[in-house]
Fold each of these.
Amino acid sequence: MSTPLIGVLALQGDVREHLVALAAADAVARPVRRPEELAEVDGLVIPGGESTTISKLAVLFGVMEPLRARVRDGLPVYGTCAGMIMLADKILDPRSGQETIGGIDMIVRRNAFGRQNESFEAGVDVEGVEGDPVEGVFIRAPWVESVGAGAEVLAEHDGHIVAVRQGNALATSFHPELTGDHRVHALFVEMVRANRTAES
Ligand code: GLN
């Protein structure tokens, strides 16, 4: 089967780093801004950045509803940090007007690990990632307050949930795209491949 085509939602955030990580994990990666571009991809990454900005721009560009529709239909998606917030069914402390795409039955708390100057790195054991702990880069990171029955916790740090999967949706509080370790992206590329096989 041909190499999967994976989009990176390119409204705001660290798009380039995800494009590089996906290419290193054997996917063809390209930025996605418009509904027509979204329609073409086999999977989608929602980058880190600022979830309030991504939310506003998604509405402004007319891509919020198409995103919700594709995620509802089972498009494999992976969100890091702000991207995790975008995939949460509920935000504990949303800014006014802040919306999410949803897709994972979880409640997230924004900036839960502290402000910018409290950013840190820590080894994180992620279910489904073989070998050494993943180097987790946490930048004004959210944590997951609670998950519903359908969502599976893949990792915790300091007693807080930092990686979750529900069906074809994956989310991490931290940023594997910033470390040069592509194992979490490889896990996502595998999810995309498995979904294509199931659909074909
Ligand atoms: N705190 C940011 C937000 O609420 C996320 C930060 C990040 O993506 N590194 O969107």
Amino acid sequence: MADAKKTKKPTAEASHGAGGELHQTASVPEARITTNHGVPISDNQNSLKGGGRGPTLLEDFVLREKIHHFDHERIPERIVHARGSAAHGFFELTESLADVTTAKVLTEVGKKTEVFTRFSTVAGGAGSVDTPRDVRGFAVKFYTNEGNWDLVGNNIPVFFIQDAIKFPDLIHSVKMEADSGYPQAASAHDTFWDFISLMPESTHMNMWAMSDRGIPRSLRMMEGFGVNTFRLLNEDGVATLVKFHWRPKLGTQSTCWDEAVKIAGADPDYHRRDLYEAIADGSFPEWEFGVQLFTQKEADALPFDILDATKLVPEEVAPIRIIGRMVLNRNPDNFFAETEQVAFLPTNMPPGIDVSEDPLLQGRLFSYQDTQLSRLGTVNFHQIPINQAKGCPFQNFQRDGQMQTHVSKGRANYEPNSLSESGEDGGPRADPKGGFRTAAVPLEGTKIRIRSETFADHFSQARLFFRSQTGPEQAHLASAIVFELSKVSLNHVRLRVLANLMNVDEELATRVAAGLAIDLPKKADAAVEPIDLDLSPALRIVGKYPETLEGRQIGVLVTDDADGKIVDALKAAAEGEGAKVKIVALKIGGVTLKGGKKLKADAQLQGAPSVIFDAVAIVASQAGCSGLLKEGAAVDFAKDAFGHLKAIGHTEEAQPLLDKAGVEPDAGVVDLGGGADAFLTPARTRQWDREPSVRILA
Ligand code: HDE
């Protein structure tokens, strides 16, 4: 006899799922859920079974389609720059470059061109953290009326290698090691430093990566660079060499290394969240756009080759002309459809912009188009909405292919054709005047596989960068190399790095060797002896960014019985200057202030350590502070804020917590009894003077 349970007829009660109401309501919902082919679905909770407890039937196309689609939701992540965050916005030209280019995006002053900008780390996978020491991608897609222009840059103006043929080696070396699968999103391991030590040309960029530029505070606080040299072409076909620059309105700012490491645990999405929240709050990130322009003659007079991507042109040598601005003012609606599926191609350029012979750029011109096929799966990736040209729809005779969504009409799919002579649509034709033009660069030479002699100086600009930094920045850079080399297990690699560093700056090499407690080796032979270039203060961060509360977050740790007036005054003053204030408490429900008023918390202490704030305040009562003394997270809150050079405002009653956390009095530790202003002054920046008392730097 069949089991009673099995034979029981399914009823509304017996067949209910998580949502419950399956057979009960007869009303038609406003938006009906359907299959991908539009068939309305009656039950999205239960699969089709042979009996209530029976096996699921193959016939269940609703279930199969849903699971099938889910099984294929993931696409291959980018081989580099897999982890990214993006936003929509606009570019506005403020100064015309009509004398040097015909590209309308650079000549129509006042015109706003839509952009989509994606920032990224390089080495980590799509699910890795936001704050490793790494280069950051800075890719901007301008939807111009003459086709898309993709300026695919980085937050560092030079690159590790000079020739595209070394790119797979570079990336293999920095990614997780091939046998063990770790470390994820980190350059501090054997294979990366092995490669770097054997490739002296990488020394300059590595200086940048080891500097505080490698650990940005926010995506909104990074510079961007086109890196490679490009050309602009004017009406007469005259070419001008150009380097592109983005400068953040909030200034270039960074974290401390110890802070970046801790943020990775506290909030792996720190940068993504920061960008998203800033835009959602209406604090739109903004950058100035600038160009460095050179004639070929001026470029030839430089002491290095402008086609060598391991070299920059100091601003002091060729000033940056600011010609526009970019504002990011809209978050993506859908991460996958936009941020993940966006495809940037350095080959996307409107007429009037052209490439140079930089051998790194030349390789990139092939790679980006090619990689989209493996990532997005079809040659028709340009039809995905985020990649479509806007204001300049594509039209050509390319046809078909997987995921073709464009329904071409007529039979003109070849050219030349004369179909229009009998009234048919003959399709588009090339425009010799208004179409894309290539600079008439004279070429000569023999086919040969060599590196140009003009690329041979690997150390002068690395030296220029290091020596142009302020004291604290030099100390951070040296300490970063010590940290990374301490994670390297191969002593011969450490020694080779040091031997190369001797060519950059002997004092730097000595400091790193001392930090590792190993003997300094002999200087490595340099292909060309480095020279001392004029220092470039423009390469610094410290002392350059504006001291402002704009874009900063202040965490206020509040306890029961605390003085609410202090919190209110601080909040009003800080928010009045553009900061964001978050109330942190032991419990998310908040606290009861002196006088009985309730104050809701924005975050619970365990989930809001001070590393995620730019400055902190501790508004505690005496009893409240006694409670905090028993909570390790509260002690760390104060200790880390101090160690990370942040301003700390506090009530007198919070002093025992500061004492326990080892917070020493200095200009950045401020009693809030004197009013909010005394605290807001140090809160506008980091307390660099404090550093020697909290860290042993190399
Ligand atoms: Fe890239 N790079 N790259 N790169 N790159 C990619 O293209 C490549 C280089 C940069 O947010 C890939 O669509 C080669 C320099 C950014 O989607 C790939 C070489 C600079 C992004 C590729 C370089 C960059 C990429 C992977 C040496 C700064 C992310 C996914 C010849 C100017 C774009 C993709 C985004 C992405 C190749 C060097 C910046 C594999 C072969 C130099 C910002 O095609």
